[in-house]
Specification:
two-stranded antiparallel ribbon; alpha+beta; Aspartate Aminotransferase, domain 1; 7-stranded antiparallel β-sheet; 4 helices
Length: about 140
C-alpha cells in the first residue's frame, strides 16, 4: 500500500504564510489560521508543503488503508483559498446559502477567493460544525 504523500511536518507555518506574495491573501490566511486555531484549540502545523492543518484524527478505510489527517485546514492555492472541512457539507445547505461567494467540491473542500466575499461568522460556524462532526466520529 502506498504512503500518503501529504503528512504533517515541522516546517514553519509562519514562514509559509509570510511567503505568500499577495498581501490580501496573506492577511486572509493569517485570519483563517487564527480562527481555526481558536475553534480547534490546536496549533497550526504544515501538512506537506502548502497546507496548514489543525488537529488530527486517525482513519481506517474498509480496504485496510489507514493514516492520519487534519481535523480542518486551509491552503492558499493559485485560483482560490481552499478550506478543508473534513466533516463535509451534506447537512450544511442552509449555512452554505448564507456564506456568500464560494464553491465546494463533492468531498470536503470549500473554495473562496477572499474573506471579504463571505460572511465570516457563517464561515466560523461551518468550520466549527465540521470539527465537532469529525471529533464525534473519531474513535477514542
Amino acid at each position: 500500500m502506498s504512503e500518503l504523500k501529504t503528512r504533517v511536518n515541522n516546517a514553519s507555518v509562519k514562514d509559509f504564510l509570510n511567503s505568500i506574495e499577495n498581501e490580501q491573501i496573506r492577511k486572509d490566511c493569517f485570519e483563517i489560521s487564527k480562527m481555526m486555531e481558536g475553534i480547534t484549540k490546536a496549533k497550526p502545523k504544515m501538512w506537506g508543503a502548502s497546507i496548514v492543518g489543525f488537529g488530527s484524527y486517525h482513519y481506517i478505510y474498509k480496504s485496510g488503508r489507514e493514516g492520519d489527517w487534519m481535523l480542518t485546514g486551509f491552503s492558499p492555492r493559485k485560483q482560490n483559498l481552499t478550506l478543508y472541512l473534513m466533516g463535509g457539507f451534506s447537512s450544511e445547505k442552509i449555512l452554505l446559502e448564507k456564506l456568500g461567494k464560494h464553491k465546494t467540491s463533492a468531498g470536503s473542500c470549500l473554495y473562496i477567493k477572499k474573506l471579504d466575499d463571505v460572511d465570516k461568522k457563517v464561515l466560523k460556524e461551518l468550520v466549527a460544525t465540521s470539527v465537532i462532526k469529525m471529533r464525534s466520529q473519531v474513535k477514542k
